[in-house]
Amino acid sequence: MAGGDELKLLGAFPSAYVTRVELALGFKGLSYEYVKEDLANKSELLLSSNPVHKKVPVLIHNGKPISESQVILEYIDEAFTGASLLTRDPYERAVARFWVAYIDDKLKVTIFWNGGVHYIMVPNDTRKDEGGEGGGVEADVRGGRALKDSSKGKPFFGGDTVGLVDITLGSLIAWMKATEVLTGAKIFDPAKTPLLAAWTERFAELDTTKKVLPDVAGYVEYVNKRRQTQAATAAVVASNS
């Protein structure tokens, strides 16, 4: 890298949080070494770099580790030149951080076992608002409210260019598409959520995104292998009971 900077990213498939950091590095135009971690046998480098949580992703910049994906994203934005992921306007920065926190809270990817079927679900908050209408994720993120608030009618949450919210939500696209394959459920239905459906396709077609987003088939294969492993384990337990 220019200036003698050395970047290493400790990551593992199929973490969307690692994908998030890869997207940020890509949109900043930064080169880095990807260090693949085996989370069943964590390396000494990972354990020493993130001794509190012992999780990926960890970004190591010139020997100094930074942990937690959103902390890493803001560090990348502040430490390196290039397209800004966060506007300099304090209010707009606050709005972006609100939606990032909302997405992390409401759209966590969950992989679970239910009735012999192993699948992915992006949870939906079905609470009602004060007027009695459907609220939560459907009205806010999935209904396009976040995009309207952040983009001001422009293509991305960041406006004319990709920003922090785009990267946060965009890191989940492969998981969402895998969910659709495995369950038949449409996450961002063009008929119900046209703004988010259009944004998803627009974001996924960017050159940087194409290079970073994991292959959907790989996610589907991962879930199916987990399902087979758990089914075999359940069968052994049942036979021994």
Polypeptide structure, described:
The longest helix has 25 residues, at 216-240. By secondary structure, this protein is α+β, with helices and mostly antiparallel strands. The strands form two sheets. A four-stranded mixed beta sheet has the order 2-1-3-4, with helices on one face. It has helices at residues 16-27, 44-49, 69-79, 90-106, 136-139, 145-151, 164-170, 173-183, 194-204, 207-212, 216-240, and strands spanning 7-11, 33-36, 58-61, 64-67, 110-114, 117-121. Strand 1 (7-11), helix 1 and strand 2 (33-36) form a beta-alpha-beta unit. Helix 1 runs parallel beside helix 3. It is built from eleven helices and six strands. It folds into two domains: 1-82, Glutaredoxin; 85-241, Glutathione S-transferase Yfyf (Class Pi), Chain A, domain 2 (Up-down Bundle).
